[in-house]
Amino acid sequence: MQDQAGRDWNEADRTPRIIVIDDEESIRTGCEKVLGRAGYEVDIARDGNEGWDHLCQNDYDLALIDLKMPGIDGMSILRRMQDEMPDVVAIVITGYASYETAVETVKLGAYDYIPKPFTPEELRNVVERGLERRFLTLTNRRLRQERERHLLDLAQERSRLATIVRSMSDGVLVINRRRELVLYNPVAEKWVLSRGMESDAEAHPLEEVLEVNALEDLVRQIEDDPELDGCDGEIHLEDEQYVHAAAAAIRDEADTLLGVVIVLRDITERKEIERMKSAFVRMVSHELKSPLAAVEGYLNFLCDGSVGEEDADRMLKRCRTRIQSLQKMISDLLDISRLESGQVQRELRTIDLNEVLSEVVSLQEGAAMERNIEIDLQSDHELEIVADQREMDEIFSNLISNAIKYNRDEGKVTVTAKRSGGRIRVAVSDTGIGMAPESIDQIFDEFYRVRNRETANVSGTGLGLSIVKRIVDSYDGEISVDSQEGEGTTFEVELPVRGL
Amino acid sequence: MARILMVDDDADFIEIQQMALEGAGHDVTPAYNPSEAMEAIEEATFDLIILDLMMEKSDDGFRLAHEIRSQLGKSVPIMMLTGVRREHDLGFDLDSPAGRKWIEADVFLEKPIPPERLIEEVRRQLQD
Question: What is the CATH number of domain A348-496?
Fold first, then answer.
């Protein structure tokens, strides 16, 4: 409803509610009628006690209070209202309007007073003024609350935004349309902003604070092309660090550029992986091309028909050897790729490593005997481990076969296996050619093979130890090498008994 | 007829090229790694040296070419063979003057190379 002054009380979702507290019945009913007709909701109380009960139980906008009543008198009600409901407008009805009384009631928080007898018009006027006051109080209170809430939200929002931006692992730069830096975080500062810039300044001209020109180019691209939503680029920072920069245009509805947001992300690791991948591909293609070229070369001679029978026989055997090693290499590469992708199907069960070792040794004994190499296997009785049998075969076949291949004739291979605590340690030692310290560092790299006069006749793919290391790593184990040139090499593998 | 030192860690590759070059009347001394190559240079004189770029290490051929140049100067032509030649693979552009200067090779040939082509290149180098 709208009251006479046109205020919309519906905004507060209710009709103004008034209580009339007077022991005089004619006043009560008179007020009830006049105010009810004016559209207010009116309650009446016959004395102070009843009036106070009403006031306590309901939300009133205004109270008309007689001063002289049996029970609690008007002054006491005013006093209580001042303490407990200061926003309810109190209007005093009085039959003896002395100066002292008026002063006292005003001191007690009465908003106005109306002397008896009064006309309906006088009553409506005084009530209306009182409600006006009430309306202002309510509006003020609502506005104050809204404002407080808004300020609180804003402060929270700002600090939340600042916290988020500050704690991001990506770098963030916000640039306004005047090409000034207006927001940035510590990561961005570290990567691309000049040292010693004033951190408390509101805005920084971009060309003064930016250490990396490529970012200005991104901003320029966006400024120059109204159609462009964003662009990106890679930045090479100092210390071999690479950062990807993505710039996004911020435009209003009319497509006017308001600013640019740049997000910087560290891609050093990705670049390193890319580099390693292309190095790997390069090595693989080299390793695959060489045997094929050799086979092709021999076949060319054989097709010419110009070589003698003995040479032809030797060439065919070489072709076969090269193709066999090519096949071994391809299956090794597939093993590596499977280990890398984590797609290895493992059959984990408790196996006895003693059995694995004895089987591997007996399979290699033939090759060892051809060169009068002795294999000595010493192991604890208790060597149970939770592992995949084929992977254990792979590890120890590689190590023992290397120990034979790179041994001297009439040398010795010693395999010792023992359990200590929750781990099993297997050492494979040979009495062979050993390795130079610089070779030891590279021995687990793919395709790395020690190449010299002594190893020229040893065949291999250069992938065996790389596979061994990957398997050992995947079991959370460790592998180490100790080698003396001309004396021999020892590989030691340590695996947890419980497997994975 | 020329005396050629051929350095490559692939014994089959050397054998194939050796047979072809010897068929064309040349005399080929094989070396299977850089240190064997340096020993051969100490012991004999060559008209031409053919090097593989990638041996034990991926840049063994470069190092060896530098070592040979520092011992023999520019007197002997060097032919460099490799399975890779793109800038991306090597880290620099082989066809740039700096690249050529750096690798110290007079000619750069890609593997695989048919023996006839190698014989032709050898003939051209010896003419120059």
Answer: 3.30.565.10
